[in-house]
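Feature request, filed as a ticket because there's no other form

It would be nice if the structure record came with a short human-readable summary line next to the tokens. Right now we just get the raw output. Example of a typical job, pasted below so the devs can see what we mean:
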Amino acid sequence: MTNSLRLHGYWRSSASYRVRIALNLKGISYDQVTHDLRRNEQAAPAYRNIAPQGLVPALETQDGVLTQSPAILEWIEERWPAPPLLPKDLHGRAIVRAMAALIGCDIHPLNNLRVLRVLQNEFQLTQEQTNAWAGRWIHEGFQALEILAGQHGSLFCYCDQPTLADCYLVPQIYNAERFGVGLSQFPKLDAIAARALTLPAFADAHPRRQPDGEPA
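Raw output as currently delivered:
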């Protein structure tokens, strides 16, 4: 591969989106391999040899393959500590990790494509009902995150510099818009995401700007 890192992902995968943001913020170059989740390309045996769960993202490194975006993001932070995506103090790092986990553990898994497929195919939910399901959990999580960002944030989720929390927030805002979740109740989060997207690291990671990205 041209670069020492190869990111397996999908343009609309918010977990892949997080990793792209972090790599861009660190100024790390990488190659991309795309797997269309709508066609179940991630289930191909060749890819499962790399990522046994058959999920994206997976990051090929010189030392081996990493899976699960939280682990990948922590690895990136430890491998390239500057610029930092976690605060210096112990308490601040815990706050940022909690914000990230609120999205990564409590919101995103419930509106992941494979969950929505089960709701539609096995429980016969309509698209409108599926969107309402996804929107419910986004709304509930954003209510708490809006408070946390108000307590600890300024220009970004935590103080004045992007952190791992912003790597999670911006893709989840993108998902919220996809599912028709209004952001007027979350002005802090909306403003943070809009500000982040003015930075090349976030803008270049946007789904529409990926090799497999599709027009709106």
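Something like this underneath would help us a lot:
The two ends are 31 Å apart (CA to CA).
The chain has a mean pLDDT of 96.
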